[in-house]
């Protein structure tokens, strides 16, 4: 089968298409013929060598976490899935078994049936950012009377988070570029701040929860726009921040909490419920498999809303 790998850190030109054997199936696994996989910022952060503490420096590395496709075969202990089922899911370790391949063998607990009313590219867009959005929602606690600020709201994560908050009646301000404003409003933002025109830090508003999906602000700056007792959610923590934020929170009223997306059936059920209730999955652009370098360049460059997906040809 064909798979995308890289043998050194770098830009998208280090990505190569290679031939490798179709993975062999363990008893608890499902072999999926991939139809689409989505691109996440984590793909290029690891590929560029920005997360070596987590990724290590061994090569070759695979890439791609969430996928959709059809079941090709099931292991002997798998129940509830059969050949031909339309599914979506996540691989456990993208560097070893990336979703950017013609086939993936995945533990059956990380594969779910695809609803008929969403496409393969939409389904492949759900798990990583969708789970992160539900996790953020859990950390926010009671959102009824909160003023919430989402910085970088028009990407994949923001798309899910805004709509989950809207379905629960929350009041959200979104920070986006000019092109992203239209999407943030459509997804449920009450007001939008265009970061190319207004600095959110000098806008004289205070929030109960601030989440920075752009990675451009950070806790220390965000403190100035947080109420006395407020929450900052960090989806891009440095490893040291995970234990440190717990310790420091003991002494501060403006809390800092990290978000780590860990897809599971519990989160997928919430997300599929939200899709049933009208959550839109906006796929900005679908590239064909042989356009993979172009696809990663496009996704990494930014300036679009929603998700970017690669489809098998
Ligand atoms: N911890 C976890 O488990 C987890 C899971 C998923 C994602 N993440 C992280 O969460 C972040 C968001 O993920 P994503 O998939 O939504 O990424 P994304 O699709 O790239 O979205 C990021 C958004 O930030 C916007 N942006 C760029 N510069 C900005 C600025 N100065 N001010 C405000 N907005 C700005 C971009 O809009 P324009 O391009 O229009 O400027 C883009 O829409 C990424 O860092 C990702 O790695 C973490």
TrEMBL record:
CDD domains in the record: MDR_like_2 (cd05289)
SUPFAM superfamilies linked: GroES-like (SSF50129), NAD(P)-binding Rossmann-fold domains (SSF51735)
Domain (Enoyl reductase (ER)): residue spans on this chain: 10-310
Annotated keywords: Oxidoreductase
Keyword Oxidoreductase applies: yes
SMART domains named among the record's database cross-references: PKS_ER
GO MF annotation: an example: zinc ion binding
Name of this chain's protein: Enoyl reductase (ER) domain-containing protein
Gene source species: Anditalea andensis
């Amino acid at each position: 089968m064909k798979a995308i790998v890289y043998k050194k850190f770098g830009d998208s030109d280090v990505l190569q298409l290679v031939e490798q054997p179709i993975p062999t199936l363990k008893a608890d696994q499902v072999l999926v013929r991939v139809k689409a996989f989505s691109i996440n910022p984590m793909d290029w952060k690891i590929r560029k060598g920005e997360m070596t503490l987590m990724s290590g420096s061994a090569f070759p590395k695979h890439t791609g976490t969430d996928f959709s496709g059809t079941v090709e075969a099931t292991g002997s202990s798998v129940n509830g899935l059969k050949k031909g089922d339309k599914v979506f899911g996540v691989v456990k370790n993208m560097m070893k078994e990336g979703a950017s391949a013609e086939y993936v063998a995945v533990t059956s607990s990380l594969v779910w049936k695809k609803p008929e009313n969403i496409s393969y590219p939409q389904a492949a867009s759900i798990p990583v950012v969708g789970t992160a959005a539900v996790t953020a929602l859990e950390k926010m606690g009671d959102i009824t009377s909160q003023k919430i600020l989402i910085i970088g709201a028009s990407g994949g994560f923001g798309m899910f988070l805004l709509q989950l908050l809207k379905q629960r009646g929350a009041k959200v301000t979104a920070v986006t570029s000019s092109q992203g404003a239209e999407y943030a409003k459509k997804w449920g933002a009450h007001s939008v701040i265009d970061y190319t025109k207004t600095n959110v830090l000098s806008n004289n508003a205070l929030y109960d929860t601030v989440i920075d999906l752009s990675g451009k602000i950070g806790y220390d700056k965000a403190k100035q726009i947080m109420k006395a007792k407020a929450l900052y959610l960090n989806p891009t923590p440095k490893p040291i921040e995970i234990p440190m934020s717990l310790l420091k929170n003991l002494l501060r009223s403006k809390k800092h909490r990290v978000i780590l997306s860990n897809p599971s059936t519990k989160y997928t059920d919430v997300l599929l419920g939200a899709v049933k209730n009208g959550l839109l999955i906006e796929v900005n652009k679908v590239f064909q498999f042989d356009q993979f370098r172009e696809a990663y360049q496009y996704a990494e460059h930014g300036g679009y809303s929603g998700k970017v997906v690669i489809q098998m040809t």
